[in-house]
Amino acid sequence: xxxxxxxxxxxxxxxxxxxxxxxxxxxxxxxxxxxxxxxxxxxxxxxxxxxxxxxxxxxxxxxxxxxxxxxxxxxxxxxxxxxxxxxxxxxxxxxxxxxxxxxxxxxxxxxxxxxxxxxxxxxxxxxxxxxxxxxxxxxxxxxxxxxxxxxxxxxxxxxxxxxxxxxxxxxxxxxxxxxxxxxxxxxxx
Length: 189
What we know:
The protein is of the alpha+beta class. It has helices at 2-23, 36-39, 183-186; strands spanning 68-69, 74-75, 79-82, 88-90, 95-103, 107-114, 119-129, 138-139, 144-148, 160-167, 178-180.
């Protein structure tokens, strides 16, 4: 009888181990949203702007500013930050919401004017805006403003944030300005 109990215990143990090996998958959770003060601090490899997608390190960014788009008809004038659909999009700097806009190419977009009014930060292909977000609203660096998506002309299988920076001259409309490469502003060279 003791031999049967022992072999039954071994079989139960082996079945539990097999279940754990084949049926249980442990994955790390998304990092928690950092409070504004923590989100505003920069790691050593970060540039002067906050990387506008929560949890994306500088090492994951690629400089696609000069890549051709639309079959070579136009330059990209932005970088694409690849991330899972629904990942938080954060304000890259202090400023205010200049325009919430839907466009064929950019899909759901957000234009943020810098606190001094001289720069527009453009966030495109958004899945959704943060609850209660509105035009004219003041934004703080690191504040959750939207979620990553693939609206507009983005590939639905490759959600990402299209992020652009434009330097504005007096009288430039919210969709104007001179494109500046955001990559060196996000990553220290």
